[in-house]
Amino acid sequence: MRSKVIAGFLGILAFVAVLPASFAFGQAEVQKSDDQKKDVLRVYVDCDKCNMEFLQKEIAFVNFIKERQAAQVYVLIKTQETPEGMDYELSFSGEKEFGGIQHTLKYTAPKTDGEDAVKQGLARTLKMGLMRYAAKTPVASRIRIGLIDKVKPTDVVDKWNFWVFSASIDGFFSGQETYNSQSIYGSLTASRVTPGLKVRLSTSASYNRNTFKIEEDGIKSTIKSNSESRSFSGLVVKSIDDHWSVGAYFSAYSSTYQNIKLSLTPAPAIEYDLFPYSESTKRQLRFLYRIGFSLNRYGEETIYLKTKESLLREALEVTLELKRKWGTVSLSLEGSNYLHALKKYRLMLDTEMSIRIFKGLSFNIYGSYSKIKDQLFLARSGASLEEVLLRRRELETDFNYYFSIGFSYSFGSIYSKVVNPRFGSGGRSISIHMGG
Hints:
alpha+beta; Maf protein; Porin; single chain
């Protein structure tokens, strides 16, 4: 009996000895938690029908407090029952350093949702509303934002089905008593771009006419000079991985200026980007190779005594493109040659700058220079004086250059911001007439 009393007494002494240490440890944990929370957003929620205990567990990046005067954000949640379910209106009002930052969110809980689903939906809406304030606190770096389900860029409802259209038409008319001039140009482009597939179609036409009235030795005469061109081009590109793409071009082309009655050219192609395509919003260095088979019919017999012929032509293009918030700058070098005559080649250097003005509208600057040794289509008969002066026929040359400035405007699908830089963004790259 005596031994039992002694054992009990020793147990009591041990409990008393351990108790202060346990209390001190508990205090240390509380102090540590308080230190972590001192920079966390303080929020006061005014809601009669909210489960605050659940919200406190679900939203760990803020402190829900019971004194409105100490809050940095005041949230008023109003509820209203409707035939569809329960409507929640969350009004957020910044206090103290967040003064003046206010906004409102709404959440509707369908009647078919259970209690747990309603609580989760309200918590998600409250989280989204508080992120605007929490992003300005020291704990912002420890908050992770994510999606419950991964959404693809094409997983949206789009009445345009991701097609974007651009159209332009220009007319120039001038004249006097002995001279008048008319020039008309029109184009239409349609494109559909997704991460896996790019399609671009373009058609254009131009017509130019000049009329001169001449009187010599009392004899009146009229000289008329016309030129016209039509073109259609298409591009289809299939993504392989983050560096490689395959595709095909197609063009149909006619031009009185180039002595081409009709040229049809399909051209398969392959491209490699030194940088991953995922970095295309910042930089690209693309190497594009294509080989095209052209069926050409000429308006007149050429200097090589041809009225029609079939040609194989290859081209290698290297493009560097840099994108910034204000726009895009690109530099491109392309070399091409006919396979049956390697000395018939062309080198082209292009540079382009596009500056954004506002939504859909851009200011563009473009310049190019070409070294030319491949004019197989030149007419044997040459050009008359009128055709030379009015540029109605292309003449033999070793080089040409071009410079332009202008504006462009695009409209259509608002979901077309999918980034797919494969085979370039359009422009000169889509025009693959292999005869010049």
